[in-house]
Design goal:
Strand order of the largest sheet: 2-1-5-3-4
Oligomer: single chain
Number of helices: 3
Largest sheet: 5 strands, mixed
Distance between the termini: 72 Å
Strand content: 15-25%
Length: 180
């Protein structure tokens, strides 16, 4: 038995026509309620005078200690003496410096620079990346742990403070004990 149509008529149910005035009124009521709630939240929550900062303290990043492996500093820029300056800065940060000269491959490096090493130099590559994160890593297949630090066109200076290389997971957030 079909409750939508009288007996003897079509077997398909009859659909009510859409009442556009009712639908428009309902949409307007919902939008007005959202605007009112948003305005109240802004007035009493976001715009309040209390400081609800979500800052937290993290342990300071400590750069990996470089192995006593030779780091060659190659200048791939046109700036005379930049390789020697960077080599002294790296020596002050605990790296053992080998050769300081122009890039023997004479590649045009448009970025910050390159770190060329093999698999056994991976630890020193990570230690060097913490002082200059913009360097691209090139696995040149060498067998020894020696690393080449090649300066590119956009190289400026080494970081003053060690920073985690890109892709390093951050340490857990600790509650800020100084607030309060």
């Amino acid at each position: 038995m079909n409750v939508f149509r009288p007996p003897g008529s079509s077997t398909l149910p009859r659909f009510r026509p859409v009442n556009t005035r009712k639908r428009a009124r309902n949409v307007a009521i919902v939008l007005a309620a959202c605007v009112a709630l948003g305005g109240a939240a802004w007035q009493f929550g976001v715009n309040s005078e209390d400081d609800f900062s979500t800052e937290c303290e993290r342990d300071e990043y400590v750069a990996p200690v470089p192995d006593p492996t030779v780091v060659n500093v190659y200048n791939g820029t046109g700036i005379i003496g930049l390789g020697a300056t960077v080599a002294e800065d790296l020596r002050a940060r605990g790296f053992l410096i080998g050769r300081i000269e122009n890039d023997p491959l004479r590649r045009k490096i448009r970025g910050t620079g390159e770190l060329r090493a093999g698999i056994s130099g991976a630890h020193n590559v990570e230690a060097l990346r913490s002082w200059q994160a913009g360097m691209s890593v090139v696995d040149d297949g060498r067998r020894g742990p020696e690393v080449d630090f090649v300066l590119g066109a956009k190289f400026d200076t080494l970081n003053d403070k060690a920073a985690p290389p890109p892709g390093t997971p951050q340490t857990a957030c600790k509650p800020n004990t100084a607030a309060g």
